[in-house]
Amino acid sequence: MIEQQHTDQAVEKSTAGVPIINITDLEKSFGSQKVLDGVSFQLNKEENLVILGKSGSGKSVLIKCIAGLLKPDNGKVLVLGESIPDLNKKELNELRKKIGFLFQSSALYDSMNVKDNLEFPLLRIRHDLTKKQRMEKIEEALNGVGLSDALYKMPSQLSGGMRKRIGLARTLIIDPQIMLYDEPTTGLDPVTSEEISLLINDIQKKYKTSSIIITHDLLCARITADRLILLKEGKVFATGSFDELKNSTDTLINSFFKT
Predict the structure, then answer these.
(1) pTM
(2) Do 157 and 133 form a contact (C-beta atoms < 8 A)?
């Protein structure tokens, strides 16, 4: 297994010894199919951690266990010091206020315009805000993703890349400490994929988020990863920097990076 070697840049962005998320011996099966088989890793403060793997390797199941959308069969899932499987619904909802989740589809409400999509989580979570304050946060979030002119557009009027950006804005509007990205560049052309990947880095720097990025997109992984974990058949197969894994002499690791 390739061990992580922090670059100076990664050390500056990450606080060593401060795990924001701690996963230990995580297992999850569906019937006779074991999807996660003893996965263990940590996410450090202000780190972009990329979970890379081919379809069926357990990436999406992993992130859903972290978000509390699926309950693991065995193992520990600690997020900001809280054991996710042990939380009741009220406690889990409180913790989720600190977690942003970008779904593959962006999950916008088709019947709402962009303003209403962004205002929806504020109405549910930030009861202390006035109408004016909500509008200020909406405008700030749109500016942050470069779509200040999309305020009253409907999702059907947006391109795939724009929908991703609005999905990001809606996630960031609650000021999360943690960002979970589930295949953020799926279905996008290479140019737009690069733009979204660079935006993920901008968000990390501006909002000082700690992020897990689930992807099979090598371009996204190369751009965003402070550290990378390669999943294979539900196990952590290798961990290190992008270049360490790409240049590995291990045949299985090396073959994964060939396109």
Answers:
(1) 0.85
(2) no
